[in-house]
Structure formats: structure tokens, C-alpha cells
Amino acid sequence: MEHDKIAACPKRESSSLFMNSCQWYYDDTGYYHYLLLNGSLQVRNMVIAQLRKNGVKVLCSNKSFRPASNGLRYDWYIRISDESSESIKKALSSCRVLPAKTADEKGLKKEDYEQLVRQASVWKQYNIRHKKKIAELRKQLQEKYSEIERLRSGMVLETSEMLELYKEENDQLRKQKNELEKFYGEEIEKLEEEKRGLENQCCILQSQLDSFAGKGSDSSSDSSDCANSSDAFSVYRRTVEILLDGVELLRGSWDVLYKELHPDLIFEVWRHIKEIRENPAEWRRQWKKLHAAEDWYERHLGKRWRLYCSQRNQKIRVLISEKKDQLKDLYYLKNYQSGNQGANNHGGEKRFAAER
After folding, report:
1. Assign residue 68 a region: left if phi > 0, alpha if psi is -120 to 50, beta otherwise?
2. DSSP letter string, 123-176
3. Which ranges of 279-355 would DSSP assign to H, the alpha helix?
4. What is the pLDDT of residues 113-134, one digit of tens each?
5. What is the biggest distance separating any 2 CA atoms in the chain, rounded to whole angstroms?
6. Which helix (H) or strand (E) holds 115?
7. How far is 91 from 50, CA to CA, in rounded Å?
8. Spatial contact of 166 and 174, defined as CB atoms under 8 Å apart
9. Alpha-carbon distance 105 to 12, whole Å?
10. For residue range 204-260, what is the model confidence (pLDDT) as tens digits?
11. Could you tell me which of 321, 235, 318 has the C-alpha nearest to residue 60?
């Protein structure tokens, strides 16, 4: 009997439109493809599960530190394999609605339902009080409006009276001025000449100031046009390329550097590159040599990331990638060194792993 009462309680409606209630964005502008979204950790895990269910290969996911290519910053990023764009689009469309059974298959317990009913009653009382308070505030507001109108009409009358007084005082001042000009005619002429001289000097200085300001505005408008003509990522990349002349970032290192790395790890990357540039003959002693790829060296960036560097002919080549992709990275660096850049032979990777 007790079981029948619990079963009769209405079940909780699924929060199925979680992808509709959160902001998300699919970013395929860089080397890697990303799904950016806002929401809790539970929402992120539900999205990842739905993507994998639809056959989409999820490479990694974490908190997002910087804005996406649309200029907005999101809570999470999910790196997606770009092997099949159609399957990704299908998965994204299917993620818009989550089946109701994933929200709660068992429904609400009786005590939870009763608690919700009590909360609804409390909020109903709050709503009635708020309506009364709003009515009172509207009445007070109307009274304030009426008072403002009365004050405004009074100010119009006072303003007209003040204008009349101003005119009278102005006429009196003009009469006094004429009397003073007659009495102090010569002194006033001397003062007028000094005034004209000062006015001429002011005009010259103003002209020079306007010319200087014009040059400054031209330079600032050029820089603003340049900033508006490119997104944040392009500006960031161009700035880094200028500051790190002679440094080449390989593969998806730009995406990782801008979209995935924590700021502390970015500073660590700059510190390692500075170490290479300042000590070109000594830096290799502090790094781990890669025997699988000639003249390549490795540094750890925390537990998750790896930094690979090589220096030849005054040029520093850099690859930033995850530890779990190390086998692919070593195979890539070996082919890059031999001139086969961008090789992506999965059979070759297996043979390379067997050789190691």
C-alpha cells in the first residue's frame, strides 16, 4: 500500500533540454576541433557521454581559460577528433535533447514530493506579499511623479523670473561699462592690445596642439583598424610571432597554447624558450634527449603536458602536446626531421611502437 502511494506521486520532469539551457559553441577554426560549453561538471559529463554514444571520438576535456574564436569565454572545452565532420554534426544535433531516463528513472520519493509542495506553498505566499509590495511602490512612485511635476512647473516660473533679473542686471552692467570706458579710455585701449596679443599666442598654441593631436589620432585609428580587422586569436598569434622571432610552433601547438594551457604553464613555456635563446650551447644538458627523434629534447609541463624543442640554424622548433599522445608525437617528430612533415600513417605508428 505504501508503495502505491509513492508510485502515485508525480515523477520529476527531466531537465532534458540541458543543451538548450546552456550556451555552447562548436569551434573548428584551428588545428583541433573543440566543443565549448557553459554548465556544471555534470552537464559536461552528460555531453561527453552523448558524443561518445553517437560515435564521436572525444580526445580530452577540461576547464576553459581563454575566449573561443567567437570572442566569448566558456566554462569547459571538449577536444573532438575531426575524422568525420558529419558524425560530429549528428552528435551535436542529438545532444540538443537528452532522453528523460538519464535524468531520473526512479522518480521522486514521497518525502521529496511533499517537501516540494511545502516549498511551493511558501513561494506562493511570497508571491502574494511581493504583489502587495509592488502595488505600494507603484502608488509611491505615482506620488513622486506628481511631486516632480509640481516642482517642474515651479522651476519654470522661477526660471522666467531669473531671466528677467538677468536682463536687468545685464543692462546695468552695460551702462557701467560704457561709463568706465569713457572714464578709463586710454587704459582700456592698452589692455585691449595686450588681450589681442595673448589671443594670437593662444591661437598659435592651439594650432600646434591640434596638429599634434591629429597625428596621434591617425596613428591610433590605424592601430584600431588593425585590431578590428582580426579576432583575438590572430592578434595574440601575431604578437607572439613578433616577440618570439625565430621560434616555430608545430602542429596544434597554437591551439593548445591559446585555448588549453593554464596561464602558469604558458609562462613556463616562455621561460624554457628564453633559456634556449640565451644558452644555445648549454640548454640541452638540462633537457631529456629523445632517442626516437634525432636532435629533439623534452620537458615536462606538469603531469599532463609535454614540451618538445629542437634548435637548428638559429631557429627553434616547438611542439606542445599531451603525454597520452606521446607515441604519435614521437612518430611525427621523426618524420618531420626526415622531411616527411605531416605524416599520419597509423600502420607506421604501430611499427614505430614495435621498434621502440
Report:
1. beta
2. HHHHHHHHHHHHHHHHHHHHHHHHHHHHHHHHHHHHHHHHHHHHHHHHHHHHHH
3. 326-338, 346-355
4. 778 888 888 888 888 989 899 9
5. 116
6. helix 110-183
7. 7
8. no
9. 9
10. 777 766 676 665 555 555 555 544 435 677 777 787 777 777 888 898 888 888 888
11. 321
Tell me the torsion sign for CA atoms 35, 39, 41, 46: negative
Instruction: Give 281's pLDDT tier (boundaries 50, 70, 90).
Output: confident
Length of the chain: 356
pLDDT for 93 beyond 90: no
Has this prediction a pTM greater than 0.70?
Answer: no
**Residue with cell string 588593425:** 226
- 27, 29, 32, 33 alpha-carbon torsion, rounded to 10°: 30
Distances (CA, A) of 296 to 91, 132, 200, 205, 327: 39, 75, 71, 62, 14
Percentage of the chain lying above the pLDDT 70 cut: 73
Residue 319 DSSP SS3: strand
CA pair distance 17, 97, nearest whole angstrom: 5
CA triple 40-43-46, angle to 5 deg: 150
